[in-house]
Specification:
By secondary structure, the protein is mainly alpha-helical. It is built from three helices and no strands. Helix 1 packs antiparallel against helix 2, helix 1 (about 10-20) runs parallel beside helix 3 and helix 2 packs antiparallel against helix 3 (about 45-85). The longest helix is centred in the last third of the chain and has 43 residues, at about 45-85. The protein is rod-shaped and about 75 Å long.
């Protein structure tokens, strides 16, 4: 009896690449595409590992854009605050 095939997270990896962070998204896409090929070859453990890696890199891409947006808005706010306080 074969175990259940894991989700490959390919859609999420593509969305991460388009809207979040290109380098992390590309890594996630590569890992996501490996899931189906490993599964077809019967390497079930490798398929689960690739699926977990695809999910991890997708989240890293999403969290990186959230952190960068927060830092950008913080610097923007501090810049506006400094400009207002000097005038």
């Amino acid at each position: 009896m074969t175990p259940q095939k894991p989700d490959n997270y390919l859609v999420w990896a593509i969305l991460c690449t388009l809207f979040c962070c290109l380098p992390f998204g590309i890594v996630a896409i590569i890992k996501a595409t490996q899931v189906d090929s490993f599964w077809a070859q019967g390497y079930y453990d490798s398929a689960y590992k690739a699926a977990a890696d695809a999910k991890k890199w997708t989240w890293i891409g999403v969290l990186s854009i959230v952190a960068l947006t927060f830092i950008y808005l913080l610097l923007l706010f501090l810049g506006v605050f400094a400009a207002v306080s000097l005038s």
